[in-house]
């Protein structure tokens, strides 16, 4: 897997050269030579990786390690040289003159280093012939591949006739997929099953394929295993043979096919299918190209024929049929996991001895609902003695045993190998993030950018490219989406535990990073994740990332980060209760780009030496006044700072107007803002948070005038302390570029006409606003509004308001509505045509609300209803008097607002009964032309 590392370094050298050509021009030829040779080496690394898998040859592994080490060394040498020259450039003219001989000496030294690196790369490159490593450009017919890979494909090769007696939890999925295939439609239609490797896509497809309804419906059926390295001619021949009638001579068919061209084979296949109602399963299809090739030979004969495909990639499923939503297979529930585990570990009596239950469930937890992992672990324990000590030994080695198990390793590796080089590097960095926690996309974004993993395409923003990369990993089912924003962008995601273990294993092979190095040396690892106290390290290489989580001991005040091992640190994130002080040595981390502090730290002040970090792009602090960190007035020196996140607490007025590259300004007291007269310099500022404190003599008109000068400003948050009030004035209407507005704190009564709001406002969030419910009739006139979040927005009066009424055709453009902690409203009423385009409705903690609005049934575009922490009486009505209002909604979520399942305590039986009743009622009410079971009720 060294291709990822070498690709990463080659791209980094290109980036360094492009940005620092003025410093590198004297060593240009050498740097270009190193870069070009590394790019050439990439052509041979895939074959080297395959030979490692095939032969496990130590010499091959050493060869790959040497390439990786020399690539990293080249990057280190150039970065250190650039820093030395940049440091001299910042000095006065006389100091520059004095240090000119040192500059020449630096050039001489780096020139010698680069010559040495280039010679070493050539030496390694020439040695590849001794190992028989060759250039691999692609895949397809006529191309060779390793014996081991062929064997693994044969082992994984699927067949619909191999019975699986231990199927668990598939009945509901089988019914849903069967209903899609049996839907009345004469055209050739496609159904697809997608999900991560090992989740049971093939098992589900096999169960569907063998259902009596399916056998009776289709005249002809065929099962085709496509695989990652399909061969076009072979696929057509195999399909023709499967379609042959029992009385036909298969040997004659083979002889005839061998005489035909590809076009002739395609014609032969079409003739066999043109007059029949057929079902063809295309199992394990990886690319849209493979799909296009296969489907062009299949006739659309108006006989209600069907294709069923399985894939790890959402892109393939959507390409095959954009009109039929792919059926996404999720992991097994706790109960289903335990049932499958018992079938595999105790096949005779399906009972686990009481003394083994706890350790068995601990082992099962690591499998995280993945059927393949559960099957492997159950089979492993089936062959062990039924003794607690024996099972505990398995538990201790669980991570390494599971990931290194031949079948699981191959399944996971296939998805990794299929990634392009830039995504391989991004995927490896996912292992840096905290185990068992959701991955916040914003944090991941800054880490990827800090490490130079995001390659800008023309004028496209780096943040947009990050989202493209993230979407591709999600589309390949290598990341699970946890939370989605109102605009449907991903807010947080999670890496399956086994994929994370695989990620870490591969990262260690790449000398990429280490987790919890036990004692004195980082060896050659480049990134470090820390769950224990930081030691003083001596290292051959330089650490690029240091992330500390949950360490109870003091991290030596970070004095050790000034050692040579840490001089090229790019990412430093600390979320440790043991750390109280940040040492001034942080100013020596000249390469640092991302510096983050979590809420668990007890750090109260940033050192002034942070101003020395000229490459710093992101400072990430907690977004809360109660966890605030004192910030010295030196940030104006950070010319490359792009994001200043969190609450900014400073005793003196900050010179923020000098931060010309700033995009995000977290939350800053408003008087810091108003005392800067040169705010128009901040031409790139897109997001601003302002806190209005007691004692501020706020002039809202003046504030709006200053904000209106920021032409890039898109998002604004205004917050007031308790006891104060935000007064909406006409000045807000000047903010024509603002599309997102959040108002936190007491809000003065809204004028009858909504002209006080920014004219292009799309997203509005009101928090703790103390408004009267009738204010909704002013907000509903905001014609551009697509997202509205009302969080404790209405005041609790002596007598409850009878209703919150949305007028006829109100909120004509609204797509997303969250009503959260609306305590003063008993009923929601919708006028005719109100919220006609609404796609998502969230109702959280509205304890006085008695029932769903009657006109909910008229919201035909509603795709998701989310109900969390509502009274028992409200939930009871969902399965009784309100049931008819839910039939048209595809996705219904009933549960606790918290995503941390450990904090969620609710009556499981009651929730499952609600789910069952809504589903049954939904099926009863569906017309024959619709898809049964379309309503998905998730009681997460």
From TrEMBL:
Please indicate if the UniProt record lists Ligase as a keyword: no
Which regions span the lipid bilayer?
none
Protein topology in the membrane = Peripheral membrane protein
Molecular function (GO) terms for this protein are: ADP binding; ATP binding
Keywords, A to Z, come to: ATP-binding, Coiled coil, Leucine-rich repeat, Membrane, Nucleotide-binding, Plant defense, Repeat
Q: Where in the cell is it found?
A: Membrane
Please state every residue range assigned to the domain named NB-ARC: 171-350
Q: Which InterPro entries match?
A: Apaf_helical, Disease_R_plants, LRR_dom_sf, LRR_R13L4/SHOC2-like, NB-ARC, P-loop_NTPase, RX-like_CC, Rx_N
- Disease resistance R13L4/SHOC-2-like LRR domain residues: 543-864
Q: Which segments constitute the Disease resistance protein winged helix domain?
A: 435-502
What Pfam families does UniProt report for this protein, alphabetically?
Answer: LRR_14, NB-ARC, Rx_N, WHD_DRP
The UniProt similarity line reads: Belongs to the disease resistance NB-LRR family.
How is this protein named in the record? Answer: Disease resistance protein At1g50180
């Amino acid at each position: 897997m060294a291709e990822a590392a070498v690709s990463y370094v080659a791209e980094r050298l290109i980036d360094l050269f492009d940005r620092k050509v003025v410093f590198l021009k004297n060593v240009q030829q050498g740097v270009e030579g190193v870069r070009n040779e590394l790019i050439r080496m990439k052509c041979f690394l895939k074959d080297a990786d395959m030979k490692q898998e095939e032969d496990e040859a130590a010499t091959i592994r050493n060869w790959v390690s040497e390439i990786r080490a020399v690539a990293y060394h080249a990057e280190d040498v150039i970065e250190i040289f650039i820093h030395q020259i940049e440091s001299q450039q910042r000095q006065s003219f006389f100091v520059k003159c004095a240090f000119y001989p040192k500059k020449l000496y630096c050039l001489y030294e780096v020139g010698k280093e680069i010559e040495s690196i280039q010679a070493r790369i050539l030496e390694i490159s020439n040695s590849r012939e001794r190992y028989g490593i060759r250039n691999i450009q692609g895949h397809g017919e006529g191309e060779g591949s390793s014996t081991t890979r062929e064997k693994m494909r044969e082992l994984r090769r699927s067949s619909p006739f191999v019975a699986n007696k231990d199927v668990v939890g598939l009945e509901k999925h089988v019914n849903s997929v069967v209903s899609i295939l049996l839907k009345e439609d004469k055209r050739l239609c496609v159904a697809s099953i997608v999900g991560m490797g090992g989740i049971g896509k093939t098992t589900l497809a096999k169960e569907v394929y063998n259902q009596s309804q399916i056998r009776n419906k289709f005249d002809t059926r065929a099962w085709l295993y496509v695989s990652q390295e399909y061969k076009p001619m072979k696929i057509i021949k195999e399909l023709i043979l499967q379609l042959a009638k029992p009385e036909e001579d298969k040997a004659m068919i083979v002889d005839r096919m061998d005489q035909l061209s590809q076009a002739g084979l395609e014609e032969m296949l079409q003739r066999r299918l043109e007059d029949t109602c057929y079902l063809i399963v295309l199992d394990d299809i990886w690319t849209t190209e493979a799909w296009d090739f296969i489907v062009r030979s299949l006739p659309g004969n108006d006989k209600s024929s069907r294709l069923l495909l399985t894939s790890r990639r959402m892109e393939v499923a959507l390409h095959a049929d954009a009109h039929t939503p792919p059926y996404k297979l999720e992991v097994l529930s706790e109960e289903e996991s335990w049932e499958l585990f018992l079938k595999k570990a105790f096949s005779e009596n399906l009972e686990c001895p009481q003394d083994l239950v706890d350790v068995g469930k601990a082992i099962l937890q690591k499998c995280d609902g993945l059927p393949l992992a559960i099957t492997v672990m159950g089979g492993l324990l089936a062959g062990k003695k039924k003794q607690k000590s024996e099972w505990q030994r398995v538990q201790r080695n669980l991570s390494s045993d599971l990931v290194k198990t031949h079948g699981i390793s191959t399944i996971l590796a296939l998805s990794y190998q299929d990634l392009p080089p830039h995504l391989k590097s991004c995927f490896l960095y996912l292992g840096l993030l905290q185990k068992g926690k959701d991955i916040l996309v914003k944090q991941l974004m800054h880490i990827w950018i800090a490490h130079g993993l995001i390659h800008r395409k023309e004028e496209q923003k780096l943040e947009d490219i990050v989202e493209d990369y993230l979407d591709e990993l999600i589309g390949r089912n290598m990341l699970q989406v946890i939370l989605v924003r109102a605009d449907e962008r991903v807010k947080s995601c999670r890496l399956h535990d086994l994929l994370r273990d695989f990620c870490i294993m591969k990262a260690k092979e790449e000398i990429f990073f280490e987790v919890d190095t036990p004692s004195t040396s980082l060896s050659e690892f480049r990134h470090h994740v820390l769950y224990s106290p930081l030691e003083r390290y001596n290292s051959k290489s330089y650490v690029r990332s240091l992330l500390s989580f949950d360490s109870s001991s003091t991290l030596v005040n970070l004095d050790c980060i000034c050692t040579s091992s840490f001089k090229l640190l790019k990412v430093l994130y600390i979320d440790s209760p043991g750390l109280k002080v940040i040492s001034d040595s942080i100013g020596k981390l000249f390469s640092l780009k991302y510096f983050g502090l979590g809420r668990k730290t007890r750090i109260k002040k940033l050192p002034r030496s942070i101003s020395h970090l000229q490459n710093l792009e992101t400072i990430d602090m907690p977004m809360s006044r109660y966890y605030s960190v004192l910030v010295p007035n030196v940030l104006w020196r950070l010319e490359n700072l792009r994001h200043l996140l969190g609450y900014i607490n400073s005793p003196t007025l900050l010179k923020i107007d000098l931060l010309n590259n700033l995009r995000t300004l977290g939350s800053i007291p408003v008087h810091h803002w108003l005392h800067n007269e040169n705010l128009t310099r901040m031409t790139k500022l897109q997001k601003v948070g302002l806190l209005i404190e007691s004692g501020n003599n706020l002039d809202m008109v003046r504030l709006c005038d200053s904000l209106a000068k920021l032409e890039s400003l898109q998002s604004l948050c205004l917050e007031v302390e308790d006891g104060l009030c935000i007064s909406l004035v006409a000045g807000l209407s000047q903010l024509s570029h603002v599309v997102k507005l959040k108002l936190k704190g007491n809000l003065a009564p809204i004028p009858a006409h909504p002209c006080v709001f920014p004219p292009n406002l799309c997203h509005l969030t009101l928090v703790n606003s103390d408004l009267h419910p009738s204010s909704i009739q002013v907000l509903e006139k905001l014609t551009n509004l697509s997202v509205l979040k009302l969080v404790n927005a209405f005041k609790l009066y002596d007598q409850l308001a009878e209703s919150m009424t949305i007028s006829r055709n109100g909120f004509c453009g609204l797509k997303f509505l969250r009503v959260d902690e609306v305590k003063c409203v008993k009923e929601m009423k919708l006028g005719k045509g109100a919220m006609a385009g609404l796609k998502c409705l969230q109702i959280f903690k509205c304890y006085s609300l008695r029932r769903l609005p009657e006109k909910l049934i008229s919201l035909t575009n509603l795709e998701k209803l989310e109900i969390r922490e509502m009274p028992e009486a409200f939930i009871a009505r969902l399965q009784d008097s309100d049931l008819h209002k839910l039939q048209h909604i595809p996705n219904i979520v009933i549960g606790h607002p918290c995503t941390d399942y450990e904090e969620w305590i609710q009556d499981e039986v009651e929730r499952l009964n609600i789910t069952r009743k809504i589903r049954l009622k939904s099926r009863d009410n569906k017309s024959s032309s619709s898809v049964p079971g379309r309503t998905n009720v998730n009681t997460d």
